[in-house]
Amino acid sequence: MAEVAKTFQIVEFNNGTIRVLSTDKRQMARWYALDYLQDKAQKTSQGAYVALLSPAFYFSAGFRKKKSNST
């Protein structure tokens, strides 16, 4: 069996929007179900999936975290 590398990238644009790009469709579906993503992932022409990160979450070195209401 061949080994498949599944990766994801987080891209923050100048206007403040954050997009998640991943090659793993199932992972993106899980993140959407857990409300990490604002919209369902769309397949790009390169075969990856892209979605907008929910404003209630952010990514850090410790992976994903929920924003606190105190800030």
Mass-distribution shape: globular
Topology as H/E string? EEHEEEE
**How are the strands ordered across the major sheet?**
1-2-4-3
Q: Could you give the count of β-strands?
A: 6
Please work out how many helical segments DSSP would assign. 1
Structure explained in plain terms:
This protein is mainly beta. The protein has one helix and six strands. The chain has one helix at 25-33; strands at 8-12, 18-22, 42-43, 49-52, 57-60, 63-66. The strands form two sheets. It has a four-stranded antiparallel beta sheet, covered by helices on one side. Strands 5-6 form a two-stranded antiparallel sheet. It is globular. The mean pLDDT is 85.
Compose a concise summary of this entry.
By secondary structure, the protein is mostly beta strands.
Could you name the key traits of this structure?
6 strands; two-stranded antiparallel ribbon; single chain; 71 residues; mainly beta; four-stranded antiparallel β-sheet
Set down the secondary structure blueprint.
Blueprint: E1 8-12, E2 18-22, H1 25-33, E3 42-43, E4 49-52, E5 57-60, E6 63-66
Antiparallel strand pairs: 1-2, 2-4, 3-4, 5-6
